[in-house]
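Please decode residue identities from the backbone states below.
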């Protein structure tokens, strides 16, 4: 092997400790990806009130249900309906909304909220900072039109992902470049996760203006899954399964 040329280096030629270190990076990458998919599932699968992550969940989460108030959308066929198991409670809140969500009528719904919602939506609860519901004024604030997740949340998630993942994708790409696959494969798969990430966050940012972009988001998710699969499994296969002696002599 010409050791002065990086181009002729193959992963299978590396020493065992180097292959172990690279493999650990790739396995951790796979784990991190699996956990992030699980997190996405937990966060959004109930947005339409039904288990399973669908285009409707994404539309409800990022575009909203603009014919209704945020509160009605959440408790009627949305992610908060599960916390209203007592028959009649949901209907009581919906009729209060229908009647104009007046302060004089608030005593009709206040005990229901206290019983079913305040464990989380109160200062100290998991939604106490983002969305407390422990007074009339605070509940009134969720009787606005449901426009989906605030764009500030998108900005926060997008900036941390773009900042950190570009480096991870560079590592994956460089490792993959030392696989013995054709230049065509490399030209497709090395840039693919970068493209998928940009398309994903771009589509997410524009869904409030064009809800059908949820399908573009799903496409970018599939692209991301495919690229992570190829960029991790390809090098692992090359390092541990492929006949290393055949490579060394070739
Ligand atoms: C186990 C904790 C928990 C309970 C109980 C709970 N919520 Fe939530 N709620 C959340 C979380 C987490 C979110 C953010 C995720 C989401 O929107 O699905 C949320 C979001 C909301 C939102 C949207 C807030 C926003 O700014 O987008 C509303 C409205 C809401 N809940 C109302 C209720 C009502 C009404 C009840 C009682 C029937 C209730 N919640 C019970 C945890 C809870």
């Amino acid at each position: 092997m010409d050791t002065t040329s990086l181009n002729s280096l193959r992963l299978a030629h590396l020493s065992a400790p180097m292959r172990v270190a690279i493999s650990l990076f790739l396995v951790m990458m796979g784990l991190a990806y699996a956990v992030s998919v699980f997190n996405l599932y937990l966060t959004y699968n109930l947005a339409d009130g039904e288990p399973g992550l669908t285009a409707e969940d994404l539309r409800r989460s990022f575009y909203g249900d603009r014919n209704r108030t945020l509160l009605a959308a959440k408790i009627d066929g949305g992610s908060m309906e599960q916390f209203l198991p007592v028959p009649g409670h949901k209907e009581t809140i919906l009729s209060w909304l229908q009647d104009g969500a007046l302060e004089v009528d608030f005593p009709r719904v206040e005990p229901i909220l206290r019983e079913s919602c305040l464990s989380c939506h109160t200062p100290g609860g998991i939604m106490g900072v983002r969305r407390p519901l422990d007074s009339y004024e605070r509940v009134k604030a969720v009787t606005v039109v449901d426009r989906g997740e605030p764009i500030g949340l998108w900005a926060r998630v997008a900036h941390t992902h773009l900042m950190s993942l570009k480096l991870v994708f560079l590592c994956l790409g460089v490792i993959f470049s030392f696989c013995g696959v054709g230049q065509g494969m490399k030209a497709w798969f090395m840039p693919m996760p970068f493209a998928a990430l940009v398309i994903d966050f771009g589509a997410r940012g524009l869904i409030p203006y064009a809800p059908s972009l949820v399908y573009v988001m799903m496409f970018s998710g599939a692209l991301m899954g495919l690229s992570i699969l190829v960029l991790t499994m390809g090098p692992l296969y090359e390092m541990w399964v492929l006949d290393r002696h055949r490579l060394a002599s070739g």
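Observation: The radius of gyration is 25 Å.
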